[in-house]
Amino acid sequence: MNATTIPGKSPAATGARATTPAIDLPRLVSALVIWALLLTVPFWLPLVGGYTVLGTRVLIFALVTLGLNLLLGFTGGLSFGHAAYFGLGAYGTGLMLKFVSPSTPLAILVGVLVGGLAATLFGPLTVRRKGIYFAMITIAIGQMFYFIAVRWNSLTGGEDGLTGFSRTNIHFGNWVLNIHDPTNFYYFTLFFFAIGCLVVWMVLRSPLGHTFVAIRENPRRLRFLGLPIGVYIWIAFAISGFVAALAGALYALLNNFTSPEDMNWILSGDFVIICVLGGMRTFWGPLVGSVIYVVVQDYLSSITVNWMSFIGAIFVLSVLFFPWGLLGFFQGRFNK
User: How far apart are the first and last CA of the chain?
Assistant: First the structure.
């Protein structure tokens, strides 16, 4: 499951007709290995010094950056505000559980709708600009939601965050899925991660996804052809917002807590770092970047409060020696 791409011009950019092999065996094997590893995480992760909740956190960060990568890596839109939609998904889920109904599926649905519709609503404002101005508008919108969460103390808990809710078990007739169990909740999260992967993969394999890549590679040519580029970027923005909101909803359920920090632009910067580390023009790059970021953060934060300095050093080395990310680098070497 790897849609594209490796550094260089895409067929859409060069005008060449895209040809897709019937079966891409190396990528198929890679996808099978990745899914086999993900499905067995609760069994092997404790053997290498980890724990199941850490694997769940990796999946959630991989999901939100998978959505961001659709906009950043495949469409070329640099957003520093996606934590807003992540946080709105978390707040929507938490508020639903606390004040309306103790139903986890309904809370997830509300969280996804709140964050996704906000991205859809504010998307047209961002696509009016490009480059650094696009990034600045996304920061401004994201910080607007951040300060609303801080100031609206009676509803959101202010700077202390939203507490007083917890995930509830899932009922299927007489059968109950106990998602309070960390292993069960890991597979619950993996289920939604698989849905997110399927949605993004189908988009990238469709003409719509090819248009996203063409916009990234040669927007001027598409503009000359009369293509409404802003509408397509808006669509990418909205899809990525819905995926980010889904990740935020799962994050709120994981912690049974959310706070304005889940909307802060600093977290948005972390999402961008994860994409760049893993390879923002590859499908699995966000997952690789999330593994590096979350594991390093978990380990270093237990021994020093300056763990972010080490993340920064890793990021600088990655940009210097692996400008296309770790996965992009290895895919480039493999294809030579």
Answer: 20
Q: Please choose, from the candidates 258, 241, 246, 250, the residue with its C-alpha nearest in 3D space to the C-alpha of residue 189.
A: 250
Per-residue pLDDT at 24 exceeds 80: no
Q: Which long-range contacts (CB under 8 A, 24 or more apart) does 174-180 make?
A: 179/104, 179/253
- Hey, what are 132's tokens? 């650094």
Kindly tell me if the per-residue pLDDT of 15 is higher than 50.
Answer: no
Look up tokens 């920064």; give the residue.
Answer: 312
With CA atoms as reference, report the closest residue to 168 among 60, 94, 248, 89. Answer: 94
Paired with 39 in beta bridges are none
Average pLDDT over residues 211-233: 90
Residue 145, class by beta-carbon neighbours within 10 Å (0-12 exposed, 13-18 middle, 19+ buried)?
buried
Q: Whole-number mean pLDDT of the chain?
A: 88
- The Cβ of residue 175 has, within 10 Å, a number of other Cβ atoms equal to 7
Confirm if 166 and 256 have CB atoms less than 8 A apart. Answer: yes
Return the pLDDT at 3: 45
pLDDT band at 105 (very low <50, low <70, confident <90, very high): very high
Of 204, 200, 202, 80, the closest CA to residue 142 belongs to 80
- 46/191 Cα distance (integer angstroms): 21
Q: Indicate the residue type of 68.
A: L
pLDDT, tens digit, 9 for 90 and up, residues 170-198: 888 888 899 999 999 999 999 999 999 99
Is residue 61 within 8 A of residue 294, CB to CB? The reply is: yes
Task: Pick the closest to residue 278 from 296, 266, 304 (CA basis).
Answer: 296
Judge contact between 289 and 278, C-beta under 8 A: yes
Residue 217, token pair as written in the block: 């590679």
Q: How far apart are CA 288 and CA 62, in angstroms?
A: 8
Token pair in block for residue 42: 């609760």
